[in-house]
Design brief:
It is found in: Cell membrane. With 296 residues, this protein is mainly α. It is 69% helix and 0% strand.
Length: 296
């Protein structure tokens, strides 16, 4: 509880310092406790460890699946280095394990090693051109590598697969905004009218289009339509991240950085928003080491 209260006080101080007196959005901010690792994941890791240490008589493909499953569990708990080791070992055992390339490409992108991410996702495309996430992941690589024309192409392909998904519309908006701001706004507004459904994240498009204010969004929509299997930490991870994007677009890097840091405090490691909040922070302060040493 003390930790939660400290986060609340820190967030209010930081946001209050960045905002003008007329901006009351800091008062509406919801700060959540970090999400703890799922006990089920920990138990599954223990079972995978037993299988690997007992040296069961498994075929290489079966052994690769065990390493791959443990890698996904490590990834969900934020243990990226352990996950990456398992993914590489799984691919040594079964070089045609498409989902392992997908995870590995995502992790390279998350770490900012874009060339390695491109190579890995190209390998995935060769194995499985219909993989459901390859265009999202390659679009994210291109977006954070500032190759916005390529990002637009991939996000368009990803959007067309399911146009009523508000997140697909948002990422296409972000990439198009770098190329043609007027087109980006027109396109998002048209998608909002044509494809919007009951998913809460369509309210995010209203936020970026200026239909609702930041304060109104936080007060009325940030916790709207919370699904039964959705935690408040998961929802707020998304809310913090997209508010950070909004502030970055509006030219308020200090406020944006606070929101991105809040997204990281949720510990919702599996979400795209958590994965790339760090890259967003680095884009606001681009002093980072791009060396590939010791990155497996």
């Amino acid at each position: 509880m003390r930790f939660k209260l400290a986060l609340v006080v820190l967030a209010m101080m930081l946001l209050g310092g960045c905002a003008s007196r007329s901006d009351e959005s800091a008062d509406a901010l919801i700060v959540v406790e970090p999400q703890e690792p799922d006990v089920r994941y920990q138990l599954e890791v223990a079972r995978a460890n037993e299988m690997l240490s007992a040296q069961f008589d498994l075929e290489p493909e079966q052994l690769a699946q065990v390493h791959y499953r443990r890698a996904t569990l490590f990834d969900a708990m934020g243990l990226t280095a352990l996950s990456r080791l398992d993914l590489n070992y799984a691919l040594e055992l079964n070089p045609r394990l498409a989902d392992a390339y997908n995870y590995l490409g995502f992790q390279y992108a998350q770490a900012g090693y874009f060339e390695r991410a491109y190579e890995t996702l190209e390998a995935l495309l060769e194995l499985d051109p219909e993989h459901p996430y390859v265009y999202l992941n390659r679009g994210l690589v291109a977006y954070y590598d500032q190759r916005y024309d390529l990002a637009v192409d991939d996000f368009e392909a990803y959007f067309k697969q399911q146009p009523d998904d508000p997140y697909r519309a948002l990422w296409l908006y972000f990439a198009t905004l770098e190329e043609d701001p007027n087109k980006a706004r027109r396109q998002l507004a048209q998608q909002r009218v044509e494809f919007a459904n009951e998913q809460w994240a369509w309210y995010l498009s209203d936020l970026f289009l200026g239909v609702i204010s930041e304060q109104e969004f936080l007060e009325r929509y940030a916790q709207a339509l919370l699904a039964e299997d959705e935690t408040l930490a998961e929802r707020m991870c998304e809310v913090y991240f997209y508010l950070g994007k909004l502030k970055a677009i509006q030219g308020n890097p200090k406020r944006a950085a606070v929101y991105f840091r809040l997204a990281l405090t949720t510990n919702v490691y599996m979400f795209v928003e958590h994965r790339f909040a760090k890259l967003e922070l680095e884009a606001l302060s681009p002093d980072r080491d791009d060396s590939f040493d010791n990155y497996y």
